[in-house]
């Protein structure tokens, strides 16, 4: 009888499984777009994300106040610096990075808004189960809404309120687990063929 | 040799398969949210979609200019009428429907923006292959951007420009192919238990 009760509880627990806050895989590569409510800023970027080393690489193409731009950023959160790499001018600018590293995923104080299927569950390959969470930004700066996949905790979108742009939405796509070229997320300066033979000693 | 060339062409054709405009399944049920750039309107709705009969049913809950509302609409495009059903007051208002039926999916004159995976292709159940298309609204009223799944042509989102609200975004989810309760998309007036025995002759 005790075993029956235990099994019934286990079954009830399994059936009642609710989504939980989660951390995204520590190594991710992919692409994202950022768009803003007031249409002042729009960005497309390829990204490399390394939560183990607390670093990111962003290859950006965008439009700010009707001016297009391209940027190549390397963000080293542990060292609180970022590098702006200009391939055209062959320059690299070192900039203080004041924010702390924020791992991708859902923080533990977020509230579940709901679980839905994007697309359809009626056929194979037609749908994706995702969880959407909401919460408050630090320092009561506004709200955020974050969607990740149920399986894998892969980022789908993050929207948050900003003073400068109104709502800002990041949409992630073409994400793969891992980083195909670790070199690209480690080098603190651009390396050409010759620099491989002329490294600083 | 001819067979080899034919096979090579076939292979090249298969490898080079580009997404094509598509029509969504003629019967769909699901849910959607509509949100607007100027934040004046926000709607959550359950929908029934019947492209064969050119009709839709919308059970809406929303917020317009900081006033919440609930609506139950039946849209009969062939007959150019819609019905606003008020369950609380047990009334049904007949309203002319001036727009033509627009099947869900991608119209033939749309331009492909790109094909991406929402989520990730690194693990099972982690990703969804979608195609995003852009085009001009009728009468040059602005642009639209529409995303559907590669497999099944299930609607994911539609964004378009409006004069009243700026950009308006419809996000579809929990879609299933078919209509579980055909009654709900056909009845032109609400039917209670007694009306089953007191139908007009």
Automatic annotation (TrEMBL), chains A, B:
Coiled coil: none
Entry GO CC: extracellular region; lysosome
Signal peptide annotation: 1-16
Domain of life: Eukaryota
Gene Ontology MF terms in the entry: calcium ion binding
PANTHER family referenced in this protein's UniProt entry, alphabetically: EPENDYMIN-RELATED (PTHR10697:SF5), MAMMALIAN EPENDYMIN-RELATED PROTEIN 1 (PTHR10697)
Family assignment from sequence similarity: Belongs to the ependymin family.
Name of this protein: Ependymin-like 1
Lineage of source species: Eukaryota, Metazoa, Chordata, Craniata, Vertebrata
